[in-house]
């Protein structure tokens, strides 16, 4: 399936999504409220079958008051690639957990929580993964500061 | 809507189940961060009932250096040495992932010579990594002798690297747009001389460990994970291939010179520790095959196509590139704002971080010794988990 | 019983050996001079102590060299000629290291355990017939005593694991307890085969009974099978690879001696090596003729040539060969899992041992020897 028909198929399944520009692979942008529904379709649709969640990460845009969540999906059945992005407000960064769809998301989401402070709803075990439980702040945020930093964020 | 955040303390101090009839009690032990199976400093809390593993709680983070944060202050060439220090046994392949991403994003063309040399180097390193893994697996299962045999080959390949690159571990070799140094004139001859020896070594590995009854008893049918589950748990590399999923980025989306060579994607049938062991041995044979096909015809040309002192700025957007390292898909996700020569956000998709968690599905129900086999068969490199 | 008498008589008439132990000499000397008796006692104590330290050093050196050559390296070469003093240097280091007792450990038991572990092999050293005239004491219940004392060896390990207040030590100790007690059954069954053949429990008596041939081949297959069972079971008793699960490094860090350091750790280490020596010496004594030279039937010339080699050398050569085999195991095999280990003992070795004992009994009763006994 070529990227164009892939995007068209996803769009017909979920009309609320938009295509995301500035990406090297087919990319769609999904409202965070519909994320779980879209992801379920992507995983279970017979022509898509995105069974491998390769990357789950978040990008901080303090100027635009949002976190962009990036999911990179791969289908080992059809050999397809898709980037799913979703925005959550920075003031209230809560997103639905996709760990019920891909078990690996449980830990990838823990990493995103640990370093970026995105909270995942319905996550079975939301804990910090690398840092101490009593660590203050989320280091990958652009405005993160601590006393050891040599170069403070502007 | 509130999201409940847990702590490790909360998890570890949950009441343990006691069996009232036999008055036995489950107990927690820390495997790591200082433990021979930690292979560095991975902490795994194991809930045991006697010898039987009930639950496995990996607690990574003891080598977390915040590489992703540091990379937000570095330009793309400066990122390369940091990748050496993630999965240090696949340093060249990690370099390649960054170089590939930047080249694709910035539209830098490379030539055949660069791609062939990169492929040969990457395969040599895969051989080196698998040789070391083979030795370490032997050591984990109690056959200490295997460790030194594995290390012997690692040193010999290390010498080849040292001659061209000047480093044995942290290579910093593959750069966006080319290579750090050209190969030495006798590189091809030396590698060609090495290949028959390495072939013998793989056969020797077979005779030293594979045929051993105890070794087979320890690995066969232990820690089985089927293909669909392995994929859902995010496994890549030999771990997922041992479960029968032919996911090998070298074959599914050929990069470098992999499109020009013949090689097989090795897959297992059962998905147990033995398959993960044997897939790697077979991969060593395939790597030797790949190098054999390339080593005779290294094309001529410059070893870089751009000047290295030029600052690279990537166009705005998401750029992702990935390579198949010795442990699975290593990906680099760069979010660029299109204005500065440093990434806005850089995320490493680490194969070890994603392969680690399958242990929580595999190990429960097995004995302590099987947990060792299972963890050893995953071939984890801890700095790559923690980043 | 008829058989036992003929055999003992044969051994008595045919032998040119008149073994004399230090204990015999001491008893003989009582009417003459009590000082001489005391001298013999002192000689026994000093001899065993000297042997203990010498064996510890020598075996560690040998193990290192053998391991090195199995692993394509050289082993110690720097300290002293051929690295001979390396072990001494390491021992000195261990002596001067801090003797650390974990704060919440059972202090007195923690201190006691290494000595208990070392006690058994030291007692056994006194019983082994090194040569017709070099043996501290020859008990007429030698085999019984060895199995009884050998079973005590597990106490040191169990106490070490229990008193350390460490989960790894505890698992290691429990594994060791289960393993050693299980495998001692098989070892004892294998010893009984030799007792059946030779009709005596005295170690010197067993050596003398092998004048016409060693029990490893003279007892049909039964002797050979008993030898194999004893080798495997005693390797398990030693906690050495492939049966080193009580201290399996990659699983339990160091098992029962995780919390030991310095001299007390050295004692465990020493106990393991001395144990290896006593097991090898017993294997040599029971199955390979002990200090008895190698004889073949009627080849008088060959037999006479063999007799020129001193019995002490024979003993040493046989023991060293067995030690080498045990080290060879260690540097070749991976480690068994705990349930596989139990499976091997209770479902393979033990039934085999019983069957073998039965076969041996049939062989003895029907006198179906390939070589006539002492005739």
Overview of the structural elements:
The complex is a heterotrimer of chains A (154), B (387) and C (375). Chain A has 154 residues and is of the alpha/beta class. Chain A has three helices and seven strands, in the order αββαββββαβ. Chain A has helices at residues 3-13, 35-44, 105-116; strands spanning 18-19, 27-31, 52-61, 66-74, 81-89, 94-96, 119-121. In chain A, strand 3 and strand 4 form a beta hairpin. Chain A starts with a helix and ends in a 33-residue tail after the last strand. Chain B is globular and about 75 Å long. In chain B, helix 3 (76-84) packs antiparallel against helix 4 (91-106), helix 5 runs antiparallel to helix 12 (273-295) and helix 12 packs parallel to helix 15 (368-378). By secondary structure, chain B is an alpha+beta fold. Chain B has 16 helices and ten strands. Chain B has a single domain (67-351), classed as Orthogonal Bundle (Cytochrome-c3 Hydrogenase, chain B). With 375 residues, chain C is mainly alpha-helical. Chain C has two domains: 21-95, no CATH class; 97-127 and 135-366, no CATH class. Chain C has 15 helices and no strands. Chain C has helices at residues 2-14, 22-29, 34-70, 86-96, 107-125, 142-163, 167-198, 203-208, 215-218, 220-237, 249-252, 262-287, 300-307, 311-330, 338-366. In chain C, helix 2 (22-29) runs antiparallel to helix 3, helix 4 (86-96) packs across helix 12 and helix 12 packs across helix 14 (311-330). The longest helix of chain C has 37 residues, at 34-70. Chain C starts with a helix and ends in a 9-residue tail after the last helix. The model of chain C is unreliable at 1-15 (pLDDT under 50). Chains in contact: A-B, B-C.
């Amino acid at each position: 399936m070529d990227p164009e028909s892939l995007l068209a198929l996803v769009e017909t399944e979920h009309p609320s999504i938009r295509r995301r520009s500035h990406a090297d692979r087919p990319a769609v942008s999904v409202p965070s409220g519909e994320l779980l529904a879209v992801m379920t379709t992507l995983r279970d649709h017979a022509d898509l079958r995105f069974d491998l969640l390769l990357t789950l990460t978040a990008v901080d845009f303090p100027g635009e008051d949002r976190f962009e969540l990036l999911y990179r999906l791969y289908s080992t059945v059809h050999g397809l690639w898709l980037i799913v992005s979703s925005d959550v407000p920075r003031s209230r960064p809560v997103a639905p957990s996709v760990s019920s769809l891909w078990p690996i998301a449980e830990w990838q989401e823990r990493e995103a929580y640990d370093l970026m402070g995105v909270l995942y709803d319905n996550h079975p075990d939301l804990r910090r993964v690398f840092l101490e439980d009593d660590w203050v702040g989320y280091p990958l945020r652009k405005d993160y500061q601590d006393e050891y930093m040599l170069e403070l964020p502007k | 809507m509130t999201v409940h955040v847990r702590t490790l303390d909360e998890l570890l101090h949950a009441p343990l189940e006691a069996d009232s009839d036999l008055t036995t009690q489950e107990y927690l032990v820390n495997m790591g961060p200082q433990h021979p199976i930690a292979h560095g400093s991975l902490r795994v809390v194991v809930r045991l009932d006697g010898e039987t593993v009930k639950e496995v709680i990996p607690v990574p983070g003891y080598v977390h250096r915040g590489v992703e944060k540091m990379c937000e202050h570095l330009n793309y060439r400066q990122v390369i040495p940091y990748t050496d220090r993630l999965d240090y046994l696949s340093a060249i392949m990690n370099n390649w992932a960054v170089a590939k991403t930047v080249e694709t994003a910035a539209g830098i063309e490379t030539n055949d010579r660069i791609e062939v040399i990169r492929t040969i180097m990457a395969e040599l390193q895969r051989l080196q990594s698998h040789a070391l893994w083979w030795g370490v697996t032997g050591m984990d299962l109690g056959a200490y002798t295997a460790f030194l045999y594995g290390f012997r080959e690692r040193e010999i390949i290390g010498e080849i690297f040292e001659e061209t690159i000047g480093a044995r571990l942290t290579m910093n070799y593959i750069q966006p747009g080319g290579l750090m140094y050209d190969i030495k004139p006798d590189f091809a001859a030396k590698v060609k001389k090495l290949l028959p020896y390495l072939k013998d070594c793989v056969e020797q590995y077979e005779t030293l460990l594979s045929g051993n009854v105890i070794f087979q008893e320890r690995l066969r049918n232990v820690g089985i994970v089927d293909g669909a589950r392995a994929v859902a748990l995010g496994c890549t590399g030999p771990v997922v291939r041992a479960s029968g999923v032919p996911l090998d980025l070298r074959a599914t989306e050929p990069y470098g010179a992999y499109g020009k060579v013949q090689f097989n994607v090795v897959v297992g049938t059962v998905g147990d520790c033995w398959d993960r062991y044997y897939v790697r041995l077979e991969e060593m044979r395939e790597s030797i095959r790949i190098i054999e096909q390339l080593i005779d015809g290294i094309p001529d040309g410059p070893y870089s196509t751009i000047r290295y002192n030029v600052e690279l700025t990537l166009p705005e957007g998401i750029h992702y590139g990935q390579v198949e390292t010795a442990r699975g898909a290593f990906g680099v996700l760069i979010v660029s704002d299109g204005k500065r020569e440093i990434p806005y956000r850089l995320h490493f998709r680490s194969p070890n971080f994603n392969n680690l968690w399958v242990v929580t599905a595999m190990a429960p129900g097995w004995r302590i010794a099987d947990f060792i086999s299972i963890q050893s068969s995953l071939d984890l490199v801890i700095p790559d988990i923690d980043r | 019983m008829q058989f036992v008498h003929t055999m003992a008589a044969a051994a008595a008439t045919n032998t040119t050996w008149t073994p004399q132990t230090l204990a015999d000499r001491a008893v003989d000397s009582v009417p003459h001079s009590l000082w001489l008796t005391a001298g013999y006692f002192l000689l026994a104590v000093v001899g065993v102590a000297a042997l203990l330290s010498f064996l510890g050093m020598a075996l560690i050196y040998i193990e290192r060299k053998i391991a090195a050559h199995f692993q394509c390296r050289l082993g110690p070469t720097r300290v002293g000629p051929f690295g001979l003093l390396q072990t001494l240097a390491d021992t000195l280091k261990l002596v001067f290291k801090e003797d650390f007792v974990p704060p919440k450990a059972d202090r007195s038991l923690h201190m006691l355990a290494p000595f208990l572990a070392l006690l058994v092999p030291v007692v056994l050293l006194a019983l082994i017939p090194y040569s017709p005239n070099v043996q501290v004491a020859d008990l007429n219940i030698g085999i019984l005593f060895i199995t009884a004392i050998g079973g005590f060896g597990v106490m040191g390990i169990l106490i070490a694991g229990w008193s350390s207040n460490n989960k790894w030590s505890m698992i290691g100790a429990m594994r060791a307890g289960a393993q050693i007690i299980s495998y001692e059954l098989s070892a004892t069954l294998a010893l009984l085969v030799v007792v059946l053949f030779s009709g005596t429990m005295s170690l010197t008596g067993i050596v003398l009974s092998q004048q016409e041939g060693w029990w490893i081949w003279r007892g049909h297959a039964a002797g050979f099978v008993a030898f194999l069972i004893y080798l495997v079971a005693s390797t398990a008793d030693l906690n050495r690879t492939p049966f080193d699960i009580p201290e399996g490094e990659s699983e339990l860090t160091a098992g029962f001696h995780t919390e030991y350091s310095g001299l007390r750790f050295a004692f465990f280490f020493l106990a393991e090596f001395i144990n290896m020596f006593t097991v090898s010496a017993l294997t040599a004594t029971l199955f390979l003729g002990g200090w008895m030279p190698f004889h073949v039937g009627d080849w008088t010339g060959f037999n006479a040539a063999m007799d020129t080699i001193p019995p002490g050398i024979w003993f040493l050569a046989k023991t060293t060969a067995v030690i080498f085999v045990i080290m060879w195991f260690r540097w070749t095999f991976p480690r068994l899992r705990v349930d596989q280990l139990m499976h091997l003992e209770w479902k393979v070795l033990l039934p085999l041992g019983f069957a073998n004992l039965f076969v041996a009994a049939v062989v003895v009763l029907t006198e179906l020897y390939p070589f006539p006994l002492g005739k």
